[in-house]
């Protein structure tokens, strides 16, 4: 999904508190703080006012449709529910429902009832035909911010409260069915896999213990919630977090901070996507994996949003923003020389070398993700209840594995996770072997006959189905070799990477977003950079490849295939000769590659690993040589080529640093000489005052000429040149005191 960047502030208004739209209604409704309701249309990307009516002297924060009877229900801050004709916005009826602000109204046309939620901590159920009170729900300990009927069973409904709880009820009685807490504590038990979609997360949870909402910490209020699909709901919280739940099992699937500060609304906008808006002035659109697909921004707080005729509409304190939505859902993968792209149901492939695109065909309904084989000849189509395998030649179906939740392609076979088992199939789709593994969730990697597998409790390294190493739980990881060919496992957590081999474990402070391992080189992306690295003995060292964030799809012929947030594919060239040079150096081999084409990078590499003498040998000019001599502590040699004031100043700073370390007075004297050549009067005053005082007279005279009178006074005074000091202090209230103490006998 994409949002056009040419946002239109086509309609200025004040303090939009609620927006409402429906596919069966031709207009957008806007509820204002002024007590007015506006009927709006989008014409040529611009918001146009069709009608405005004032229904209250108080703000309106809630709107709902009763399109079966062509009505609109509005909730006001004085506790009234106002019913309007949906065409002309004429008031049909109004009545007092609460004694405080009405925050939300929800209509159930099939059951002929509607709900209201209020700051009086109460939810009320009314008859839609005669507006009589049917039930009242008073469990909340704080304001009830939103109420919604269950998208699966409309006789149930949910409420969201600032006491941090989501509650579930029936319309037939007031007994609470379930209480859900706002968001969970961050713990290993919540490490479910969402990077391959909700299907994968749900499958992993079905093999694990239930995590009760009642065990969650009440950390923030819930301002809004919505149903992402039949199985999941998502909450928007006071502290900028969203939390997605499998509501049938009362289990958290994902939790993420997506706004700076309060989130005011979360909305399901269709096609597996949902959107949020908040006080930070942003609207963000997410896919079902809680990954940001698009954003739009405002200079004001955004209170509500809605979708109308392929536009996303956001209501702020000062204006209504509109942006066009491109509803095409795109997923991009790479394998070998091909880039695959799933657009809605159609699968396309593009050759890396010539960029020629080919339409392979269409999948059946229900495919939420796909995975190509390493050679790009087979593709696995992942749906909620199965994984189907297709030949890329004509997109012909070859195999369907029911109840499968994950797949990994190796060179000569592929592995599928099915109900606590891992099944291996040959490339001719014959089942080769099956081994049981309790609560298995994902296969992370395969290399040299080893499988790296994630279970509900651990990450396991397997050889022929037997566990050879048990590692901490993670969602992502890979098998790779260090520079000497020893096997290691890299595990990627939220803010760190674990490099493991047997009992050896090294923690690296890196937040890896995507990665691709090739031999003993790991290419990875962070939030700001594209990098690559090696495991040198037990330590991981990495280097910047590009100062930009992207998702790594694969590697082909020294070209890293990546894509940005808009799914635009980008090719990043890899200097394989420089990487070969680095590996030669790390393992102690004489570099086989001439360094002329990458001399500055080779120097920087030697410096980064502490090989300063080797870096010095490669220097091609005095500037490079000077910097390395400083780092080596060869200050006499550095002084000989310090041909500028800036270099002399650096040399002086280095001498001061060595004085602090050694206490040797000669470093202060040499620092003074360097600062003198640099013209650095401030530093020269201090170093010379504490050493030979050779240059204090120069500092005093030069500082006076430059207008630095305080520095001049201090230099002459420390140098006991009182007559010069008196000239500087003459005319001040200290003149007489100075003369009597330092000039008169």
From TrEMBL:
Keywords: Repeat, WD repeat
One GO cellular component, as annotated: COPI vesicle coat
Coiled coil: none
Pfam families in the cross-refs: TPR_COPA_B, WD40
UniProt keyword Repeat present: yes
UniProt cross-references to SMART domains, sorted A to Z: WD40
Boundaries of every COPA/B TPR domain copy: 601-732
Nucleotide-binding keyword on record: no
Name of the protein this chain belongs to: COPB2
